[in-house]
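Q&A log
Question type: sequence-to-structure
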Amino acid sequence: MDILVIEGAASRRVAVAQYLLRATHRVTISSSIAEAREILQFITKKSEMPDAVVIDDRIVSGDATSFREEIADRFPEAAWVPLPSDRSLQWLGDWLQSTANRTAARRRRSVARGSSVLVVETSRAAREAAHARFASEGATVRTCSSFKGARETMAKWSVRKMRPDFIVSPIQGRDGDGISFFLDAKRRFPDARWIISDASEKEQTALMRPV
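Response status: OK
Response body:
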């Protein structure tokens, strides 16, 4: 499933992302409704849609209500999943599984043809698997073995007025924190979408397999 997560607490964002990753969901993380709106603008341009929106139920405001109405209007098939802070992640998994069962007939969205993808992965095998998977979908792919290398690539792209549509990276790398890296990337490329790929080599192969 393609899942948009809106979670204000940094530690909870990591926990939710890691949990969803183990279930091989494709996840985009945002820390606020404003940031989520920016992400959805990009998704709409690519003719994609989220299967579910998981939102921290502590983000309660008139803005949250209007945002839910926007989701219902623009993505009528997307599930709205309020995540109470006192609920376990297993509860979230059960909810999403029930949603997946109801929408099993729908084809899961993939990276759009013509997109530009930046892959950050220390494992050579995982980099090659990611490159093959996205290239087979018609995307232009650039791979890097570290966050440092990815930052250097992004700096060059900025000068050339190029940009990544998708950034594939782990939550934690050998030379830094993936969430901090992605937030830095978002400041440079606000339309970029994050695909988490924090897994062992065996899990990576399964995660990167087209569905």
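Response note: Residues 89-102 form the longest helix (14 residues).
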